[in-house]
Amino acid sequence: MARIIAVANQKGGVGKTTTAVNLAAALAAAKRRVLLVDLDPQGNATMASGVDKHAARPNGCAVLLEEATVADAVVATEGHYDVLPGNGDLTAAELKLMDTLAREHRLKEQLATVAGRYDTILIDCPPSLNLLTLNALTAADGVLIPVQCEYFALEGLSSLLETVKAVRQRLNPKLEIEGLLRTMYDVRNNLGNEVSAQLTTHFGDKVLRSIIPRNVRLAEAPSHGQPIHLYDRSSRGAIAYIGLAGEVIRRERGLPPAPVEATDPA
Ligand code: ADP
Ligand code: MG
Q1: Is the pLDDT of residue 26 over 60?
Q2: Which SUPFAM superfamilies does UniProt cross-reference here (predicted)?
Q3: Quick one: which atom of ligand 1 is closest to the CA of 14?
Q4: How far is the CA of 20 from the centre of ligand 2 (A)?
């Protein structure tokens, strides 16, 4: 049975899509069977995976409206994971869903039809706490929250965590916090260290060990329609996402995080 992880934060530009795409590819490189669901009408995860969002039909919209099955809509990618493509049609799907019964459960029901085919299903959420995001949180076992190491990073986190709590109470009792992921971390910048320390103070072991550095190769890869390990496998960004995949796999197996490299006692 697939484990479902929603990548969510209602703030835009924090690294959700970059994380969803590159974690999908890194897990696939570790021989996991992975499905990436693009639930953002911007369709960035679809394009970044090398799939043309304009031509993608049927897509996530048809699946949410039960006009197509997930199996019919998924597309295989060069990164060895499948994508359920998303584009502007998702906005129409969201509006139509508003009037349906059990509207928050539609994605969960649809993903259940392919749960045996994948080890991990990642969902790239839109930058808002709308019905699409609620569908993702209702379907998910865990929510992975990218946090940009910049000023105002913590802003909005409390409303996201309130939403997670409400979803757990009303829609999906099994929803866990997979972790807060520090993204766009810049070692040369004190601010990154400050934000990182603040996060650890507030959220303790909910903060993942893996840190994603600011790395220009990560920003370039989407315009080539490639995940980072295909675009530049030796970049710091690629290595960081391989590390994150390892951490996610260890969590899944109930293992403690990998030990930090032993330092020379002398
Ligand atoms: P979101 O999905 O949360 O809106 P994105 O993943 O699209 O955020 O990232 C926002 C922008 O920042 C994109 O242009 C992306 O290429 C860039 N970006 C994301 N992560 C990094 C990183 N670690 N280093 C450099 N640029 C990044
Ligand atoms: Mg995005």
Answers
A1: yes
A2: P-loop containing nucleoside triphosphate hydrolases
A3: 3
A4: 9
- Model pTM? 0.95
Residue 50 CA, distance from chain mean position: 17
- What would the mean pLDDT of 215-226 be, rounded to a whole number? 96
Q: Any residues with CB less than 8 A from the CB of 22 and at least 6 apart, and which?
A: 218, 221, 227, 228, 229, 237, 238, 241
Complex-level ipTM beyond the 0.85 threshold: yes
Taking Cα atoms as reference points, which of 89, 36, 82 lies closest to residue 67?
A: 89
Regarding the beta carbon of 13 and ligand 1, being less than 6 Å apart is answered yes
Q: Please provide the DSSP assignment of 34-57 as one string.
A: EEEEE--TT-HHHHHTT--TTT--
Residue type, 210: S
Any domain includes 167: yes
Give every CB contact of residue 175 below 8 A, 6+ residues apart in sequence.
137, 140, 141, 142, 143, 164, 167, 168
The torsion angle over the Cα atoms of residues 103, 136, 154 and 242, rounded to 10 degrees, is: 180
Q: Which domain range does residue 135 map to?
A: 3-252
Q: Does residue 266 fall inside a structural domain?
A: no
For the domain that residue 139 is a member of, what is the CATH number?
A: 3.40.50.300
Q: Whose CA is nearest to atom 17 of ligand 1?
A: 219
Q: What angle do CA 136, 217, 231 make, to 5 degrees?
A: 80
Ligand 1 lined by 108 (C-beta under 6 Å): no
